[in-house]
Design a protein that fits this description.
The protein has one domain: Ureohydrolase domain (Arginase, Chain A), CATH 3.40.800. 33% of the residues lie in helices and 17% in strands. The protein contains eleven helices and twelve strands. It has an eight-stranded parallel β-sheet with strand order 6-5-7-12-11-8-9-10, with helices on both faces. It has a two-stranded antiparallel ribbon with strand order 1-4. Strand 2 and strand 3 form a beta hairpin. The relative contact order is 0.17.
């Protein structure tokens, strides 16, 4: 349907009914066992983000959103009764949870909703990306993070699984893992040619070696400084989706932002992305019409004072708002003709 609207006596340009409501599914995963530093409190983040007015912030200026909150997944209810792989901390509780996350993501996607997952630490990306792979024929992932998270248990110096999620979901590294206990539910793998990083500024030497071996698109902060964020987004999308036809999942670690924008996170580093740059990444992917999921992870309310926590939560909310299709320049109101008839 094509409409002509009048605004303050001036006819607006013609536009299509792309104003149909965006459908969002919220999923909380209060998981903090991807690291040994459980006291930092990433498990508290989903509840705090909601209580800080996430849904109100999304809908206040944007009528084009249908939000359904699927609640929080219970964490730690199931454990594998098997020997855990070496150098993978808390594996016995991690893997059953990833299976449940994957199933929930598929349920949300089946309702034609963008799945917004509130973490929790970044280990949960194993579940969200696996679920998206089962829901989408063609999936590409934009990984926004200060860190590459592509270690294996052989290359990791810490054994923290939140530094391994990318390596666990890509097919090129499957042979380095072998048969992992309790991971037989994952039947689809992501190709590294369909993964792009933005915002890197702390990459381990072995991760760098993996990146070189497989020609992974890594747009670290030096690229953002040199080319600007818009060009970096363009380069990322051209690399992982050259035919402009693939679905997208964004896995966003809040530590990709500069420490002034997100001080309450486990590894807060200087010289990161600005909040505006982070929002631009999500907005531009949303504008393709093929954003299918967003992870918002590693917000740690146990770090910093009340002001630090508020600053970080506010940043996370603004990033999530961008995934709902909110336009910073303002949204046209719905008319009765725009509302889809289901």
């Amino acid at each position: 349907m094509v409409l002509k609207l009048m605004r303050f006596g001036v006819q607006s340009r013609m536009f299509s009914s792309q104003l149909a409501k965006t459908k969002i599914g919220l999923l909380g995963v209060p998981y903090n066992e991807g690291s040994s530093k459980k006291t930092i409190g990433t498990a508290l983040a989903p509840e705090l983000i909601r209580k800080s007015g996430l849904i109100k912030e999304i809908v206040e200026f944007n009528e084009h959103v249908d939000i359904k909150d699927f609640g929080d997944l219970a964490v730690g209810e199931v454990e594998l009764e098997t020997t855990s792989p070496k150098n993978m901390q808390n594996y016995s509780r991690f893997m059953p949870l990833m299976k449940r996350i994957s199933e929930k993501v598929q349920e949300i996607r089946a309702e034609n909703r963008i799945c917004v997952t509130l973490g929790g630490d970044h280990a949960l990306a194993v579940g969200t990306i696996s679920g998206q792979l089962n829901a989408s024929e063609n999936l590409s992932v934009i990984y926004v993070d200060a860190h590459a998270d592509i270690n294996t248990n052989s290359t990791s110096r810490s054994g923290h699984i939140h530094g391994m999620p990318v390596s666990l979901v890509v097919k090129e590294l499957s042979e380095y893992w072998g048969q992992l206990p309790g991971f037989d539910w994952q039947t689809k793998k992501l190709s590294l040619k369909n993964v792009a990083y933005i915002g890197l500024r702390s990459v381990d030497p072995m991760e760098r070696l993996i990146a070189e071996k497989f020609n992974i698109k890594m747009l670290g902060m030096e690229y953002v400084d040199k080319y600007g964020i818009n060009k970096c987004i363009e380069m990322a999308l051209d690399h992982i989706d050259p035919k402009n036809e693939r679905d997208y999942h964004i896995s966003f670690d809040i530590d990709a932002l500069d420490r002034h924008e997100a001080p309450s996170t486990g590894i807060s580093l200087a010289a990161g992305l600005t909040l505006r740059e982070g929002i631009s990444i999500i907005e531009q992917v949303f504008n393709t019409g093929r954003l299918r999921g967003l992870d918002m992870v590693e917000l740690c309310p146990g770090i910093g004072d009340a002001r630090d926590v508020k600053t970080t939560i506010d940043s996370a909310i603004q990033l999530i708002v961008a995934a709902s299709g909110n336009k910073r320049s303002g949204n046209l109101p719905l008319t009765q003709h725009d509302i889809p008839k289901n």
